Amino acid sequence: MIRALLDRLPDQEIGSHLLADEGEVVIDLVRHHNIVFWRPIAEGIGMLVLWMLAVIGPIELGWLFIVAGLGLGAHALYLTLRERRDLFVITNMRVFRATGVFSVRIATMPITRILDITVEKPLLGRILGYGHFIFESAAQAQGLRHIRFIGDPDARDLTIQRVVQQSGLRGRTMQQRLMDGN
Predict the structure, then answer these.
(1) Rounded CA gap, 123 and 162, in Å?
(2) Please, what is the Cα angle at 45 between 41 and 48, to 5 degrees?
């Protein structure tokens, strides 16, 4: 039910950021793991509790509970939109991240600049199926250094490694060399 509600929220427009004339295509579009929605859900429950207090609590403070509940609900909606609109995109040419609710920020790293990817999987992440990426590149000060709460991080790491390999940026594999007879 929650997933159906989240699917109705507006998404980032990824197509306008692709280099379609150059043949860039999306390989994987990655959203945050559902664990990031624990806080908005908790705030939504808090909003309902405040509204119940407005009904069954002291009548003089009813307005305060209603206003506090509205504020908490608005903050929960903002957090939900912020997490929903934070996308990590893997294309055949680059990786980029689109974030923002009211304004959009795009951080891009060409596949050629990726030197190393560290995948961190905390204990809870191993149980629930999420992890964090740390990208190492020649330019360390960039917006793609830490990508947190990625679902199925091992598969996403393999996808990036496969794109890097197919782009010819790494040496030929041992199997390719053996097939060529070299």
Answers:
(1) 27
(2) 140
Instruction: Report the alpha-carbon distance of residue 107 to residue 85 in Å, rounded.
Output: 14
Give the pLDDT mean for 108-117.
Answer: 86
User: Cβ-count burial of 164 within 10 angstroms (0-12 exposed, 13-18 middle, 19+ buried)?
Assistant: middle
β pairing state of 87-91 and 114-120: unpaired
DSSP letter for 37, please: G
Amino acid letter, 89? V
- Read off the pLDDT of each residue in 56-79 and give the average, rounded to a whole number: 94
pTM: 0.79
CA 103 to chain centre: 16
Residue that wins the pLDDT comparison between 151 and 1: 151
Convert 119-179 into a string of H (helix), E (strand) and C (coil): EECCHHHHHHCEEEEEEEECCCCCCCCEEEEEECHHHHHHHHHHHHHHCCCCCCCHHHHHH
Torsion region of 48: left, alpha or beta (phi above 0 gives left; psi -120 to 50 gives alpha):
alpha
